[in-house]
Design a protein that fits this description.
Helices cover about 45% and strands about 15% of the residues. The protein contains 17 helices and 19 strands. Helix 9 runs parallel beside helix 12, helix 11 packs antiparallel against helix 17 and helix 15 packs across helix 17. The protein is elongated and about 110 Å long. The chain starts with 10 loop residues before the first helix and ends in a 5-residue tail after the last helix.
């Protein structure tokens, strides 16, 4: 209709509407196309694929395959610990491979273990060590008892594959890893030495269990039938504990084709052992193979596996206060598998049917809210603006016609109303404009970081098999994209102030404010972890790397971006509207239409759309599960960005229509507050509504993690909402003629 009327004044607004409708339609269409793939609880590759790597490791028969131990983690706390902080069997030399920045920051560093395993050579019973007076090892024994109550698990890895616990019954959804819940693993060795099928459970192996009055072992908070929970709770302080001192490893390997050979006892490798001089020589037949999976069952056996083999009828549980000490042992069973090395992570990264349904319900809910909001914008705001613009044009044409008939002697003006009244004040710089520019620049920087991270994750470069790569990529991207923070903040500041006198101040705050706030929160959490003795505490060398990224990379790039922006001509937002020397009086509004109420209510829309997915991701991270769902995250990210953009437009229009030109901070804070809502909701749920430890250390660390994540969300949401609102205001006021 605008083009049919050949109205040049409406062209900018029409272009803006076409762009907004195109973006919203693309988001909705893309989400609907993804939804079309869902049928009967089956998903056709919605999750992003991953690149399995380019360096598979081959192992020959009899070759040593190292098993490394990692950190101790729990589903009830975010505080990790080192494996050797407890009284455990220690190898002759404890060493760790070179870890990347992400591994060090998360405390996920691997160490050598005393377990000795050789490719395709089964071990029925191997004793690791015997620890005398296990319960009297000082702080280590007290920590062991505490960790058993807190349900800590010891993580292990072989050829970068995590050890997964096996159970004889289907695990609860809380402990299952990825899509393995209810998935049978065949051919494994159970606690009784029989090869059978078992269920894959959680990552890592429990340390021990509480012994119930009926003699059963109690690992989780769920009580078996016939057990009185109150009796267990009352006797918790007097309870005895059992040590899981024997591990049955079931290691799956994929034999390479045409690689069969024999290994002589002295290590000579031949294709055919019949060519050896000694026909009675001991040889091992096998294939060159690759590790594709490792599972384990745990037992508490007094005296270790040799005691069990000697007299199985007299086997008792291994108590932690046994006067003979605690003997640790293990067995190894090698199982050939048809699973290729490239697809060995599929079972761990796949999602269960319940998780898939949860994500689809979340996306459907988000799509419904986005559709409703889109219709609200289209039906209310767009129609109202179009009616106003057409009315203004008709009045202008009528006055111009009357003026022509009268020979140019008539006064061709008319009385304005609504949002057009503030045309000469709408681009007046707001209070604390410098802070707004800095926050906008930081938000756009984080927006680009998220886009890069999602893109890399979608093509598989950030899969969980590359430990610590996600966090490392985030930090390096954030440092390099500091150029965008300085450039965007300087661009906005120069547009607001034609003769900027605080150029250096804006650049300085862009380089220090947001990174400095994040560093303060990180340092507080790290100090608490250091006092607690957690492996999550960052060493001094890593602090040096972080400060080097900040001062050597981030700060110079921020000033470079600001310099480039200042050298360009400043953008003139109010090119057709001369600003009044005296600000216009703002009419008083009832409390329910005040700016604070508008911000609090408007922030609920992005929060309701994003909270379900945010809660799902955070809960999986806190439960030590793999999160590899970039397909779902991308869809939700696009939907949330569309909702944030539309929310900013709605709030800005209502503000201007009320003859209030203070839309700058209002559009920003409305979207920013949605991150505050997310922080409060997540913290409330995990500390009150979730089975999570409420001790001081865990609460402080959890609060710090939630605060940093919510700060990122708030800054991105505020920047996107403000930028779209700025484009919206510029489009509608460029479409009218203000006297």
């Amino acid at each position: 209709q605008f083009e049919n009327r050949k109205s040049k004044s409406m062209a900018p607004f029409a272009f803006f509407l076409r762009q907004m409708h195109g973006v919203t339609a693309a988001v909705l269409l893309g989400a609907l196309v993804v939804s079309w793939e869902y049928n009967n609880n089956n998903v056709v590759s919605v999750d992003a694929f991953y690149l399995p790597g380019v360096h598979p490791q081959n192992f020959d028969v009899g070759e040593h395959v190292p098993l490394k131990v990692g950190r101790l983690v729990s589903t009830r706390t975010t505080v990790p610990y080192e494996y050797y902080k407890l009284p455990m069997c220690v190898p002759a030399k404890v060493s760790s491979p070179l870890a990347n920045l992400g591994e060090v920051l998360t405390g996920d560093v691997l160490y050598t273990s005393p377990y000795k395993m050789q490719m395709q050579l089964n071990e029925t019973c191997q004793t690791t060590c015997t620890i005398r007076n296990f319960h009297k090892k000082g702080a280590g024994s007290k920590l062991w008892k505490k960790f058993v109550e807190e349900r800590y698990h010891a993580t292990m890895r072989m050829d970068n594959m995590p050890v997964v616990e096996l159970t004889e019954s289907a695990p609860a959804s809380e402990g299952a890893v990825g899509g393995t819940q209810g998935r049978l693993v065949t051919g494994v060795t159970s606690s009784d030495g029989v090869h059978k099928s078992m269920f894959a459970g959680g990552l890592g192996l429990p340390l021990g269990a509480r012994i119930l009055p009926n003699g059963r072992l109690h690992i989780s908070d769920e009580f078996e039938e016939g057990t009185d929970p109150q009796d267990v709770i009352q006797n918790a302080g007097k309870a005895d504990y059992a040590v899981f001192n024997h591990i049955n490893f079931s290691i799956f390997y994929h034999p390479l084709p045409k690689s069969r050979y024999s290994v002589y006892a002295n290590g000579i490798r031949v294709q055919d052992h019949r060519t050896l001089e000694d026909p009675n020589a001991e040889v091992f037949d096998g294939y060159t193979a690759r590790i594709v999976g490792i599972y384990a069952t745990i037992e508490s056996v007094k005296g270790g596996c040799k005691k069990k083999m000697g007299n199985p009828s007299e086997v008792n549980v291994q108590k932690w206060n046994d006067k003979d000490g605690v003997t640790f042992s293990y067995s190894v069973n090698w199982i050939p598998s048809e699973t290729n090395w490239a697809s060995r992570w599929d079972a761990l990264l796949s999602m269960s049917a319940h998780d898939i349904d949860t994500n689809w319900y979340t996306i459907a809910n988000s799509l419904l809210m986005t559709t409703c909001l889109t219709f609200l914008v289209a039906a209310v705001i767009v129609r109202s603006l179009r009616r106003d613009l057409l009315k203004y044009e008709e009045i202008e044409e009528m006055l111009e016609g009357l003026n022509e008939e009268a020979g140019g002697g008539l006064l061709t003006t008319h009385e304005d109303f609504g949002w057009k009244l503030v045309a000469h004040d709408v681009f007046r710089p707001p209070k604390q404009s410098t802070l707004l520019c800095v926050l906008y620049g930081a938000g756009m920087q984080l927006f680009y970081v998220i886009c890069i991270t999602i893109s890399l994750g979608a093509v598989g470069f950030l899969n969980p098999s590359n430990r610590g790569v996600l966090l490392s990529t985030w930090l390096f991207s954030f440092s390099v994209l500091s150029y965008c923070a300085g450039n965007k903040s300087a661009w906005l500041y120069q547009a607001l102030h034609k003769n900027p006198i605080e150029k250096r101040r804006v650049a300085m705050q862009s380089a220090w404010l947001v990174p400095g706030a994040a560093m303060v929160v990180f340092c507080i959490s790290n100090t608490i972890l250091w006092i607690e003795g957690s492996s999550g505490a960052v060493p001094f060398g890593t602090f040096f790397v972080l400060f080097a990224l900040w001062f050597i990379v981030s700060v110079p790039l921020t000033f470079l971006g600001s310099t480039v922006a200042y050298r360009k001509e400043p953008e003139d937002f109010a090119i057709s509207h001369k600003q009044n020397a005296i600000p216009r009086m703002i009419p008083e509004m009832p409390y329910y239409r005040s700016g604070t109420m508008m911000i609090m209510v408007g922030a609920l829309l992005p929060f309701l759309v994003s909270f379900a997915q945010a809660f799902f991701v955070v809960s999986r991270l806190l439960l030590n599960k793999f999160v590899y769902m970039f397909g779902f995250i991308t869809a939700v990210f696009l939907i949330v960005m569309a909702v944030i953009a539309e929310t900013g437009i709605v709030i800005t229009y209502w503000c201007l229509n009320a003859e209030d030109y203070r839309w700058w901070w209002r559009s920003y804070m409305t979207c920013f507050t949605s991150g505050i809502y997310t922080f409060i909701a997540l913290l409330f749920y995990f500390l009150i509504g979730f089975d999570y430890s409420t001790n001081f250390v865990n609460m402080m660390v959890l609060t710090g993690h939630m605060l940093l994540a919510s700060l990122v969300y708030s800054l991105v949401a505020g920047a996107v909402g403000f930028r779209v609102s700025l484009a919206f205001v510029g489009a509608i006021y460029d479409a009218i003629k203000a006297d």
